[in-house]
Design goal:
This protein has 562 residues and is α/β, with parallel strands linked by helices. Helix content is 46%, strand content 21%.
Length: 562
């Protein structure tokens, strides 16, 4: 029969005393009853029912081994096999020393021998067992991710280092797993769906780990790490993980990315090993031709190259390693082509890497927000160069400079540009602000507002790389701009000459109708110049006339007129 001592509301830790003899139950109840709420059971069967009903509130079971109906050994075996019950500590009550070893093997935390004639020792052992259990519960809560049951990152790395220490001869792999574009999964289908996906992936990872030696953790959000014995192929692991998500993916496609750092450099600590696995995993972002990538020497060299560029941008600006080149632009509408303007382009003359292509560092700085520093530097250098040419040759020469998406986010952009004009005694006619492709990803409303603010301040705004996919033709009618730059290398891919001509005519006619100037870039042949002139395009740039030039080389255009 279930009994309780104290009030109906639990304010104390609970202890279950299980013994078939009433006198023993009463003695133990008296000893521990001042500090704990005591429950009683007369046999093992009754005890198991009470343990299951009270599993979330029981702090300790004091269990006699020899009882009718079901003995204490069976209770221990049952609790040991049940994950929900095995966490409840058990102190065995016995008068037989031979039973102690078997009890401990079955999961008992401690034992008490009969008769119970030392109350202080009993209370001390009960208190110590409960405190150890509660301390372990706190550790368990900290070391396990509540959603997936895998280790948290900090405990994972600690255990991985121990595994390294005790098994240095094991050939291990560091593996990083991500759900591709997981933030969109949460936005489109809700956080409950996202949590379900994480739980299922966590379960699939645990099932995989059952088949091999290793550890797994949920590092953050949708980032999972595995530290496991080396395998030559991870396609089967990918298939197993995706199978684990199959109950969700019948209606929603979830793509996994797996980065692997195999053949580990044991001189690296575990965290740096996983940095390399994560690098491989991140390299798969946006690459839909493969889902598994091994970190190798090529990736290492690329990582070093990237780190060198990112770490060197401030010094590059300070030491003027960033060199400005000027791409001449020619008016072709009437008579012989005539130099009329130029575009400012940046190159990096790195002290160790040599001349670095903008294709290598500009996209990288776009991703990390450093592009705004480069844009500001280029605009300042261009403004200073306009003034220098004017002072030396008496010419006013407009330059096109870039605006990235980070520039458009900056509420002080117009003030910065106005400050440049004042500092170098220029006007808004001296600078054309060209929207780079990255600026196209700003939402349309914000883009329109940013362009409107610049035009209200008197600046001219152009659209760069039209035809490369950043803008549709309809954008010309919805966002007022002053100039459109048509990229001929994309038009050149149209096989049929007639179709190519029609497309160019359509763009030029639309721009002319709106009063928008057209500049064609990447023009390579005289035939293209003639075609563009016949279709109404007024300005061109490209190797047909000149490649980008240094400021010193560009002087020749002015000196020839003197």
């Amino acid at each position: 029969m279930e009994q309780t001592m104290g009030g109906t509301m639990q304010t104390q830790r609970r202890v279950l005393v299980v013994d078939d003899e009433l006198i023993n139950r009463e003695v133990l109840g008296t000893i521990v009853g001042e500090e704990y709420e005591v429950l009683y059971a007369e046999n093992g069967r009754q005890a198991l029912g009470m343990i299951r009903r009270n599993r979330d509130t029981l702090s300790l079971v004091m269990l006699d081994l020899y009882m009718p109906e079901m003995d204490g050994f069976t209770v221990l075996e049952t609790m040991h096999a049940d994950p929900e019950l095995s966490q409840i500590p058990v102190i065995v009550l016995t008068g037989e020393e031979t039973a102690e070893l078997k009890s401990l093997e079955l999961g008992a935390a401690d034992f008490l021998t009969k008769p119970y004639d030392m109350p202080e020792i009993i209370r001390a052992r009960v208190s110590r067992t409960i405190e150890l259990r509660e301390g372990r519960s706190i550790i368990n809560a900290a070391e396990k991710d509540a959603l997936t049951g895998l280790y948290t990152g900090s405990f994972f790395f600690e255990y991985a280092q121990q595994l390294e220490r005790y098994h240095p001869d094991w050939d291990m792999d560091a593996v990083a797993i991500n759900i591709d574009r997981f933030h969109l999964v949460n936005e489109l289908y809700g956080r409950d769906f996202g949590d379900s996906a994480l739980r299922l992936l966590g379960r699939a990872i645990k099932e995989f780990l059952y088949t091999t030696d290793g550890l797994g953790c949920r590092q953050e959000a949708d980032a999972f790490y595995l530290y496991c014995v080396h395998r030559d192929n991870y396609d089967d692991v990918l298939a197993q993980m995706e199978e684990g998500l199959s109950s969700l993916t019948r209606t929603v496609r979830l793509r996994l990315r797996i980065g692997v750092y195999a053949d580990l450099d044991r001189s690296l600590d575990v965290a740096r090993q996983f940095d390399r696995a994560k690098t491989a995993c991140d390299m798969l972002r946006g690459d839909y031709t493969r889902s598994v990538l091994l970190y190798d020497n090529a990736l290492y060299q690329n990582e070093v190259f990237t780190a060198t560029l990112l770490g060197g941008v401030h010094k590059a600006i300070q030491d003027k390693q960033l060199k400005i080149f000027y791409q001449p632009q020619y008016a072709i509408a009437e008579g012989a082509p005539k130099l009329c303007s130029a575009e400012a382009l940046v190159r990096w003359e790195h002290p160790e890497l040599g001349m670095v292509s903008p294709a290598d560092f500009l996209p990288l700085f776009e991703e990390n927000g450093l592009i705004q520093l480069v844009d500001q530097y280029v605009r300042r250098e261009a403004a200073a160069q306009i003034k220098a040419w004017r002072d030396e040759f008496g010419v006013t020469f407009p330059l096109a400079v870039n605006l990235s998406r980070f520039d458009l986010y900056d509420p002080e952009l117009a003030d910065e540009l106005t400050g440049l004009l004042n500092e170098f005694e220029l006007t808004t006619d001296d600078l054309l602000l060209e929207l780079t492709e990255s600026a196209y990803i700003v939402d349309v409303e914000q883009l329109d507002e940013a362009v409107a603010r610049l035009r209200e301040a008197g600046f001219r705004v152009g659209m760069d790389n039209f035809g490369s996919g950043g803008f549709a033709l309809g954008a010309l009618f919805t966002m007022p701009i002053d100039q459109l730059k048509l990229d001929m290398k994309y038009v050149r891919y149209i096989w049929e000459a007639e179709a190519r001509e029609r497309l160019i005519r359509l763009v030029v006619d639309a721009a002319n109708y709106l009063g928008t100037a057209v500049v064609a870039e990447s023009v390579e042949t005289e035939e293209e110049v003639d075609l563009l002139r016949s279709l109404g395009c007024g300005t061109v740039q490209g190797r047909c006339f000149a490649t980008p030039e240094t400021a010193e080389e560009f002087k020749a255009h002015f000196e020839a007129k003197q």
